[in-house]
Amino acid sequence: MSAISGATRAALQQAAAMVERDGALSDLVGLLDPRRELSLWMVAGMVARMLATHQVALDRIEAGHREPRTGIEVALLTLRRVGCPTSQRRLYDLMADLLN
User: Fold this and answer.
1) 56 in a domain, yes or no?
2) Is residue 1 part of a domain?
3) What does R_g of the chain's alpha carbons equal in angstroms?
4) What is the C-alpha separation between 49 and 100, in angstroms, rounded?
């Protein structure tokens, strides 16, 4: 059995990060708008603002100073860890592809 090449390993890691990102985005949509009453654009804006305003809390969680307090914090941590876009437009595009 041959070893996995570096390029294949990188592609697998990128695919795993995308799966985690998609799961976190789906979780956030479910937590922020469980009845799907808001437009996806509005939810994308909420997520973009949360990624910007929760930086200190996320830093503290990543440093081990406290645990995530909500499912929203868990999802935001995942998005930050896997390198999710932070602009409302890019988040909207990802969510639209994922949820439509």
Assistant:
1) yes
2) no
3) 15
4) 22
Question: What tokens appear for 88 in the block?
Answer: 């409302």
Place of tokens 């305003």: 53
User: Could you give the number of structural domains in the chain?
Assistant: 1
Contact call for residues 21 and 84 (beta carbons, < 8 A): yes
pTM (2 d.p.): 0.88
Domain that holds residue 66: 6-99
Record the tokens describing residue 14, joined without a space: 């990128």
Here the tokens at position 24 are 């976190």
pLDDT in tens, 26-55: 999 999 999 999 999 999 999 999 999 999
Question: Helix axis angle, 40-53 relative to 71-82, nearest 10°?
Answer: 80
Instruction: Quote the CA–CA distance of 24 and 80 in Å, as a whole number.
Output: 10
